[in-house]
Amino acid sequence: MSEDFKIEIVNPEKSFLSKEDITEAIVPAFEGEMGILKDHISIISFLKPGIIKLISKSEEESFYVEDGIAEFKDNNLSILTSKIINLKDMNRNLIDEFIKEAEKDSNKEEIDDQKRYLINQKIDVLKSISIN
């Protein structure tokens, strides 16, 4: 019996990714890192800035995501997000640019504690990305 499930990631520009051979997905949910395997209970969760890791029998892929919603139901994982980038496409200059932008946002006086927390989470994640 197959241990695979389907994933679809959509952002405002397009359907970003669609695969049917995922054996495990790890998503940065507000509740913490969440691992999803086939036949996981149905869930809906908001995403915080972090890394989505997708594992199939043939490869492992990682993506930086800033926000979104993840829904798992009937062995289909759907992720809607405003910003997602394959880690293979990231470079040090892009990461530094994102960090600089986030630090600028963090220094604004009018933001509330929740936004400041999410911005700090974004900065921590970006600083943790190692580029080969």
In short, what is this structure?
The protein is of the alpha+beta class.
Describe this structure in words.
There is one protein chain. By secondary structure, the protein is α+β, with helices and mostly antiparallel strands. It has helices at 92-106, 113-128; strands spanning 5-11, 14-29, 32-36, 43-47, 50-56, 60-65, 68-73, 76-80, 84-86. Strand 1 (5-11) and strand 2 form a beta hairpin. The protein is globular and about 50 Å long.
DSSP strand tally: 9
Briefly note the CATH topology name of the largest domain. ATP Synthase, domain 1
Instruction: Assign the structural class, choosing from mainly alpha, mainly beta, alpha/beta, alpha+beta, or little secondary structure.
Output: alpha+beta
Largest sheet: 9 strands, mixed
Layout of secondary structure:
Layout: E1 5-11, E2 14-29, E3 32-36, E4 43-47, E5 50-56, E6 60-65, E7 68-73, E8 76-80, E9 84-86, H1 92-106, H2 113-128
Parallel strand pairs: 1-8
Antiparallel strand pairs: 1-2, 2-3, 2-5, 4-7, 5-6, 6-9, 7-8
Notable traits:
single chain; 132 residues; alpha+beta; ATP Synthase, domain 1; 23% helix
